[in-house]
Amino acid sequence: MGQKPKKLNPERSPLDHFGALLRDLRERQDLSQAALAEKLLTTSAVVRKIEVAARFPNTSFIADCEKVLNAGGVLQRMEPLLERERSLRQRKQRAKDQAAASTLIVPVVSRLNGQ
């Protein structure tokens, strides 16, 4: 027997919305995550992570889901929103990394300059 599915919040982000759509389409076809993964030639862990918005789907995953789940284009229409969200998250992470790096560099430079 499988675990109780995690409650999804599709309003939180495009990634969450995509995951909820994917789960809904999969369940309408009466497929488990493992069964869908087998049809997509991937793992159930990948399907699970995408459904719970822990991983971004790539273009081929989206296209394959469209075919396997007969999604009628609904998943592919999400792709530009997913790409925008991925880009924003990457920029935010880079800014965070740069801020962390600058806090490490300033003391080292100060010591090198004898301050």
TrEMBL record:
Protein's UniProt name? Helix-turn-helix transcriptional regulator
| InterPro entries assigned to the protein according to its UniProt record, in alphabetical order | Cro/C1-type_HTH (IPR001387), Lambda_DNA-bd_dom_sf (IPR010982)
State the organism of origin.
Natronoglycomyces albus
Family matches, as Pfam families: HTH_31 (PF13560)
Q: Which SUPFAM superfamilies match?
A: lambda repressor-like DNA-binding domains
> Taking every annotated instance into account, which residue ranges of this chain make up the domain HTH cro/C1-type?
22-75
The entry lists its GO molecular-function terms as:
DNA binding
